[in-house]
Fold this sequence. Notes:
With 99 residues, the chain is an alpha+beta fold. It has helices at residues 4-10, 14-29, 57-60, 63-81, and strands at residues 37-43, 49-56.
Amino acid sequence: MISLETLREKEKDEEIINLLTSIQKIQAKQPKRDQLITYHRKYDENNLFIDSVPFNFDNQESEGTKKLLYLLGPWYDTLKNGKILVIDELDSRLHSISH
C-alpha cells in the first residue's frame, strides 16, 4: 500500500492531492471493522471431536479459506440475479482437498 505522503511527493496535480486527502479523511471517520471469528473443530488422537477452537479470520485463516469466503457474495449475487461472473485464476490458493 502506498501512503498518502508518498503520493503527495510524487504527484503535483492539486486535484488529485485534494481527492486523496478527502478519501483519507473519510477512511479515518469509518468505524473499526468488526473482527470475524471462525471456529475449527478439534479432535483427539482417536479422531473424536473434543472442542471448537476460535480463529481470527484475518490473521489465522488460510488464503484459500479467505478467497472462498470472499467469493461467496459475488457467487450468490450472480446466481440469484442471472448475472455473469468472471474470475481469473479461480483455482489459485483454493484448497485442493475438500472435506
